[in-house]
Write a structure and sequence with these properties.
By secondary structure, the protein is an alpha+beta fold. The chain has one domain (5-88). It has helices at residues 5-14, 34-42, 78-88; strands at 19-22, 28-32, 54-58, 65-69, 72-76. A five-stranded antiparallel beta sheet has the order 1-2-3-4-5. The chain is globular.
């Protein structure tokens, strides 16, 4: 399965996933875990030390994407990344 950046962003929007797009050097999309992100967004002062789990996804041009999963870096198929994102945002 191949997926473009636009299709990936549409997937995130359709599933109400919190994400940020970074275009500084290359396109990186940061996907945040729902529960922690919303806690920190709702009460930033109270939860200032709360860690928000995330995925950084990049290199969308091949059959594998480069993923940084809370510091652990690896190459993954798009299907695996999408499954992991859905698990993070239940």
């Amino acid at each position: 399965m191949t997926m473009t950046i636009g299709e990936f962003v549409n997937f995130l929007d359709n599933h109400a996933v919190h994400y940020e797009v970074d275009h500084r050097v290359m396109v990186n999309i940061y996907v945040f875990e729902k529960r922690s992100f919303e806690k920190k967004e709702k009460h930033p002062r109270k939860n200032k030390d709360l860690y928000v789990p995330y995925l950084r996804v990049s290199h969308f041009d091949g059959p594998y994407w480069y993923v940084r999963d809370n510091g652990w870096c690896h190459w993954a198929k798009p299907e695996e990344v999408l499954t992991q994102i859905l698990k993070m945002n239940k």
